[in-house]
Amino acid sequence: MGTAEAVAFYAQSWIATDDRAVRRIIAPDAEIEWNLGLPVDDEELVQTLHRIAAFADQVSVVSRTCAGERAALVYDCVAPFGTVRLAEFLVVAQGRVSEIRQVYDVVALRRHFPGLLET
């Protein structure tokens, strides 16, 4: 699976709240970082993405750029109270996502997804 296919599968899986598929596409030793001020590992990432997708009225990929093994995605997460933008920077190795860097609009996330960061 190439970068574009792996990244599309990853995004479609978490947006559809298919946690098993998300876990399959993330490499076991993946490096994961985000700007939420909380510790993160693959399980915390999967749970957080699940909560976002479940609470949101709609999650859509508004931009996707792939270059070699790297990809950048921008999402709009539409909640009942407003929209939150999320950017992800991914690296794919051997058909699995091996690095994930997430950047959230933390102010909008706290405002429009209340309680998400309190777990």
UniProtKB/TrEMBL annotation:
> Which organism is this entry from?
Pseudosporangium ferrugineum
Supply the InterPro entries for this chain: NTF2-like_dom_sf (IPR032710)
The record's listing under Gene3D superfamilies reads: 3.10.450.50
Q: Entry's SUPFAM superfamilies? A: NTF2-like
| Top-level taxon in the UniProt lineage | Bacteria
State what protein this is by name: SnoaL-like protein
